Amino acid sequence: MKRVVIVGVGFGGLRAAMALAGKGMEVVLLDRQNYHLFQPLLYQVATASLEQESIAYPIRAMVRRWEGVNFRLAEVCGVDLENRRLSIPGDFIEYDYLVLAAGSITNFFGMESVERNAYDLKKLDHAVDLRNQVLGSFERAARESDPARRRALLTFVIVGGGPTGVEFAGALAELDRFVLTKDYPELQAIAPRVILVEAMDRLLAAFPAELQEYTLEKLKRMGVEVMLNTRVSGAEPERVFLHDGTVIPAHTLFWSAGVRVAPLADSIPVPKKSAGRIPVEPDLSLAGHPEVFVVGDLAYLEQDGKPLPMVASVAMQEGDYAGKAILARYLDKQFPPFRFHDKGSMATIGRSAAVATAYGKNYSGFLAWLVWLGLHLYYLIGFRNRLLVLLNWSYYYILYERQIRLITREGEGGSCE
Amino acid sequence: MKRVVIVGVGFGGLRAAMALAGKGMEVVLLDRQNYHLFQPLLYQVATASLEQESIAYPIRAMVRRWEGVNFRLAEVCGVDLENRRLSIPGDFIEYDYLVLAAGSITNFFGMESVERNAYDLKKLDHAVDLRNQVLGSFERAARESDPARRRALLTFVIVGGGPTGVEFAGALAELDRFVLTKDYPELQAIAPRVILVEAMDRLLAAFPAELQEYTLEKLKRMGVEVMLNTRVSGAEPERVFLHDGTVIPAHTLFWSAGVRVAPLADSIPVPKKSAGRIPVEPDLSLAGHPEVFVVGDLAYLEQDGKPLPMVASVAMQEGDYAGKAILARYLDKQFPPFRFHDKGSMATIGRSAAVATAYGKNYSGFLAWLVWLGLHLYYLIGFRNRLLVLLNWSYYYILYERQIRLITREGEGGSCE
Question: How far apart are the first and last CA of chain A?
């Protein structure tokens, strides 16, 4: 039996596995985590809206229903294209076909002081760390007597005006306003600051101008300070430095201004494109290696003269395609080149407010928000997770209450030494 | 306004605060965590049944509805009885009345090798650590080629035949049998071992003999190996040593064979009772300090010639009493001495199986199990948490599925170095 190895169980790897399940091939899924993570909702874990468990789904719970598919919890250390095998700690895994779907990590563009001091949102524990930091800052502010330090503790700088930055900024502003100001009577006199920093002259660069303006207006009305045409140049634990020399006293810096491919890409010896992406053939295979497919954020492919973006919808379609293309190749059938069908994109800003493009039309406000909710529930895996998320959202929508404001970091109460 | 300071927001501290809320006194709650933890369900977090968030409730969410009550996230370093103040990191808090409700920690009875290698269940992160360990052991076993090591990875030794040990053993045996054996087709040939070690000649020592026997029989039928009259003498990462010289190769050791009071008790200069408990007057106050009350696991009080046990129901009644006694003292009223009303105790063993005593009668099986479910839901704080737990339990009961089998510990996929 021919063996397909799939590296990474994100949106791309998962769709590839689904396309290949029960088709007479051996499929081995590899990931360093034992769960599929629904990354688009990480910011809601970070803002105390969702339990971390509700956006993660154990891979073996899926795989046990898929004929011929196995999972192995393993870091992948390298790819040996010549011998068609992967190295994992203490072992090798041979493949007949390979799907690389290892995704991306945060790109700090070499700014070490930012990397050291900033929070980001790519993994489940990042979201929990960020939640601990936000809630912990309020606790520290509550017992701080120095007004300047108190102000810095309650200043949250978010860098990057893409969907993640916008969604986190909106959710954080609402957490502050609807929940935490009620929790901390001792902080009534101080309004927490949420500052959104974007290098370009607009938010949500990939969206139509109309929706960019809506987003900017909405965030401002929610109390978010938006700084356009602004770059961060460095950071310290209690300060953020801007390119123009401005210093913002802030204990929390969140970075969502860029991604780059997972380090595994280094073991593919081809010249990379921007963000380290691996150029692929029109059928997503690696040049000279028709048995190797690269999908999702890892893959660089142009369509109509523009590179496909590093987003979930591209990864899903590419993963599905790669699975089907492998089957076709295995059965010696022809298969047309990959083509991404853009159904649109969306971002939520706050309660009853989102922006969306779908099939060339623009939507904003309540309708876009409802569609956002529906689609996220739809793509979330598992009935239980959907129910849990729906419950949490309803709970928050009706009661303005976010229950998961737990600080799980040790030592927040100080040390007696 | 007179100030009451309550140390610890467990079952005892919480009830004291509830009794004092809105009564014209200033109440300050102190805890090192920002949430009330429902400890009796920790073992269900450890066995992938419940989200950690569903058994924790943010204290400020309660306190903001309670007039005159404030919360401060702080470690308490010491009590200065003479000057009526507590030291916390970098500060002091003065009190007119004090309620000490700091609870207990695990007692390893000085066995350092056990303390180093064993898991216990007193805090939220303990439960997550234990879940990671159980699930991680299955993953490591799945990729282990040496049969002896594989067997040791799938051997779980539980020490202590009290409610926590029994409940964890039962839940773990069911997790293995109903969930994990389906998740790991590569481990079909090996039955995981759950070993329950108890020093006495019976389980659940505080229960009537009839229920002890029921529990023993039920656990055995569920595949748990119960070793009575057996003591653990030491441990290594992959081995557990028994007093009689037996060595059990096992990578997971869980310790629930004893508790002792929180270290804060050291700052109360009185001779302690067993487990380090602080002897109190019939009204739960400290001899010579009528303004200081000690409740819950911390307090030692005999009733009808026997010490009250270190259990949640005692802590709740004592906390409530202390709150009311402080009010009475403040209003210069007489107040009768504390008396514990034993409504019974219970432990669950598995699906549809529990034991309970209530008002002198014994119950076992399905009925006891239903009562167990109902009472735990009732005592759990917050509508949302109750709903979540009920959903999870229903889900498991109907589908034999425990969804939260996520390994959140880093590095489980091995290291490439």
Answer: 62
Taking each helix axis from N to C end, the angle separating A383-399 and B383-399, rounded to the nearest 10 degrees, works out to 170
Domain count of the fold of chain A: 2
Residue of B9, B32, B34 for testing the chain A interface, max A β-carbons within 10 Å: B34
Cα three-residue angle A50-A52-A54, rounded to 5 degrees? 70
The domain that holds A81 is classified in CATH as 3.50.50.60
The range of the structural domain enclosing residue A377 comes to 112-256+345-399
Which of A298, A330, A362 is the C-terminal boundary of a domain? A330
Which residues touch A247 (CB under 8 Å, ≥6 apart)? A239, A240, A241
A321 and A388 part of one domain: no
Rounded to 10°, the helix A383-399/A366-379 angle is 150
Record: contact A403-B61, CB cut-off 8 A: yes
- A74 → closest Cβ in B78, B387, B413: B413
Amino acid identity of residue A320, one-letter, is D
pLDDT in tens, A1-40: 999 999 999 999 999 999 999 999 999 999 999 999 999 9
- How far is Cα B295 from Cα B315, in angstroms, rounded to an integer? 6
B298 φ/ψ angles, rounded to the nearest 5 degrees: -65, -30
**Is residue B216 located within the same domain as residue B205?**
yes
Q: Where are the alpha helices (DSSP H) in A154-276?
A: 163-174, 181-183, 209-221
Tell which residue, A296, A229, A330, A204, has the closest CA to residue A12.
Answer: A296
Q: Do residues B230 and B294 both lie within one domain? A: no
Residue B192: helix, strand or coil by DSSP?
coil
Q: Which helix (H) or strand (E) holds A347?
A: strand A345-350
B135 in A contact zone (CB under 8 Å)? yes
- Count Cβ atoms below 10 Å from residue A241 Cβ, excluding itself: 17
Q: Coil, strand, or helix at residue A122?
A: coil
Identify whether residues A266 and A208 lie together within a single domain: no
Give which of A250, A230, A254, A255 is closest to A240, Cα–Cα: A250
CA angle B85, B89, B90 (to 5 degrees): 85
Q: What is the pLDDT of residue A308?
A: 98
Residues of B in contact with A414 (CB under 8 A): 74-75, 88-90
> Would you mind telling me the total number of residues written for chain B in this entry?
417
Contact between chains at A413 and B183 (C-beta distance less than 8 A):
no
- DSSP structural state of residue B283: T
A389, A41 contact by CB (below 8 A): yes
List C-alpha distances in Å: B237 to A246, B105, B106, B117, B359: 53, 22, 19, 6, 44
CATH number at residue B240: 3.50.50.100
A146, with CB counted inside 10 A (0-12, 13-18, 19+), is: exposed
Chain B hits for A402, Cβ within 8 Å: none
pLDDT, one tens digit per residue, over A148-177 is: 999 999 999 999 999 999 999 999 999 999
10-residue block means of pLDDT along chain B (417 residues)?
97 98 97 97 96 95 95 97 97 97 98 98 97 97 95 98 98 95 90 97 96 98 98 98 98 97 96 98 98 98 97 97 97 96 94 92 94 92 87 87 89 87
- B56 and chain A in contact, CB less than 8 A: yes
Residues of chain A in contact with residue B58, where contact means CB-CB under 8 angstroms, are 183, 403, 405-406
Complex-level ipTM? 0.94
Cβ separation A413–B70 shorter than 8 A: no
Nearest CA to B134 out of B167, B157, B111 is that of B157
pTM value is: 0.95
Dihedral sign (CA A139, A141, A145, A149): positive
Q: What is the DSSP letter of A285?
A: E
Q: How far apart are CA A89 and CA A92, in angstroms?
A: 8
Distance (Å, rounded) from C-alpha B222 to C-alpha B214? 12
